[in-house]
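Quick board copy: two proteins, each given as sequence then tokens.
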Amino acid sequence: MSQHLFILTGGSRGMGLAIAEQLLQSGNTLICISRNTQRALHDQAQKVGAHLEQWSHDLADGASASIALKNWLQVHASDNFQSATLINNAGVIPAIAPLSQADPHNLAMALRVGLEAPMQLCAAFLGATENWPIPRKVVNISSGLGRRAMASQAAYCAAKAGMDHFTRCLALDEALKPNGAKVTSLAPGVIDTDMQIQLRGAPADKFPDQNGFQQLKATGMLTSPADAATRILNYLARPDFGSNPVSDVRDAQ
């Protein structure tokens, strides 16, 4: 019997890849939904005896990914698992510039990947597992920028603020159910990923906070992807997980 089922988006690089690597333990089942697959994850799963499926989906079309997830869950019995968890980690930063200079297609992609797809996947996951008698959890990876505004970051801030608020609504929905899922929108801290490279390299005349991000790197204030993944999974394992639907991993340190 598989110990635990995990569904993870954006698991092919950065913090998402680090989360996937740490979830690949003997007996676990991990579904990674990303644009690209990782041969190294396949090799690790074979080595440790974990069940891994890597689904190639562009989450700008979250509907197709959510339908695939719903169909998969509906043909698997809950007694195969001790728990089921969805981790919505995928996200993108569109071109860094004032909203007045934004490309409409770029804005649409950021909102589809960062907000629309997580909502669709939550709906599919929770709907398909609603009658499963096992613990179910949802972790939506948010950001401090969902809770404070920043110039030239309108789309990213809006997506993360929307994620925080729909998670609050979701928590109210699930609290009314006999075996409702525990849900949290979790800010993971400031992490040394490609996203940080984008922010540090943005034109200073379009991004007033560029120097602040450069200083974070220069002063060693960035968390490694592996350490950030560990903090997220430790937070997920807390007995009070879900008691606050909008959280920050740094509050638990």
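And the next:
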Amino acid sequence: MVAIRDVPYRPLVAVPDLSDGDSQTENLLIQGDNLDALKSLLPVYAGRVKCIFIDPPYNTRSAFEHYDDNREHSIWLSMMYPRLELLRELLSEDGSIWVTIDDNEGHYLKVIMDEVFGRRNFVANVFWQKTPTRENRTDFSAVHDHILLFAKKRDLWKEVRNALPASTSQLERFTNPDNDFRGVWASLPAHAKAEKGRRQAQFFTVTTPSGRTVDPPAGRCWLYTEPRFNEMVEDRRIWFGIDGANVPRVKKFLSEVQAGLVPSSFWSYQDVGTNAQAKLEIVSLFPGDTPFSTPKPEGLLNRIIHIATNPNDLVLDSFLGSGTTAAVAHKMGRRWIGIELGEHAETHCAARLRKVIAGEQGGISKDVNWQGGGGFRFCRLGEPVFDGHGSIRPGVGFADLARWVWYRETRRPLAEAPATPLLGVHQGTAYYLLFNGILGDRRPAGGNVLTAVLLDCLAPHDGPRVVFGEACRLHESKLAALDLRFRQLPYQANA
């Protein structure tokens, strides 16, 4: 298994000719190996991604045109593990990751995600009904996929996640048979399981308007004490049926639940779409093209992104495939990063996103009133900053090395590299980088070597300081007296 420290840090290189729309956009389409690409994102995006969705190859031992989906089990897990580690570093503290998978590797994937994200941060195993039809040519017809959902920190995520709007089928359950002035309502049971701790006051006999007496079912108790129950009856919040003889039920008004519904762990194809529907969406965009074997419908991504994010939040998909995640995020007003390997990053993903920017009306477009606009920057991976011997490659700029040094030391992103040696202050320590003539002079007295003269040129800081440079001319006792630590380039920047 590849260790994260052995993955090379490769800066992103923009390709303007393949970009589209707003040139100032933060949306990124990256072509390249997603392991390298994820590490390249760390210095700028660590802790900033609100939602990660990935649809990795399922390892089903079947042939896929665009993916090698026939790896040995252990190799597949070894491929996933370091990618999950990097994805965790990119998640915000209140962020979440959603991974689609089937039964071939789903339960093994759950175990390694428990290890990477922590079992306490497991939220749900969502069952997505990917097809309404039964496959009769096999011994057991699989009609669902799993969507494994983990939060970075579940206690934070559950406070910010969004509820679901009521579906058409759910809204149809709301009626108003008694002409209540508060509007339509649905009824719910007025009793609950009589668990330990329930008060005795929740066990009593109810007399219905028709004169019938009713006790709670065996092993259950009323939701309320008798005084509170009577208040609910007086407020017309208890329903006994048209003739007043039914078992009591609680009226729940639509006006009181429109804030949304708690997501459930079963998603019907009627609500979020199917694989077949996703293929039709792709074919409508690219007539005559052969779509991916298992694309995901825009409706599925719409639900995930709605639950996990708000407008302008950042969404990441490192197995972008046909580009669905980026397309849906774009239409929903989210920022996004998509990573894809090979030519179809250009032929499929970029082409699809250009259509989105132009205002295409497929998928969820009409549901979200999509009219077009925005843009994306197409990027490829540059050469590694460090070569095989640990040296800094010729041509590496100050900004790229500065971002890496800052992230390596602080585990925090550096969105904009400064124009001076001072990279920033973290937890009371100031970090400086002497590289590539940042002070305008490559001589030892004014360039990349720490001397007494150069030290006076650095921005002052009242506290510990760390300076990266090619060499140091100051004695260790002097450094200690100044509360300054020197770290030599390139070796102590690539450890």
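Board note added afterward: The chain has a mean pLDDT of 89.
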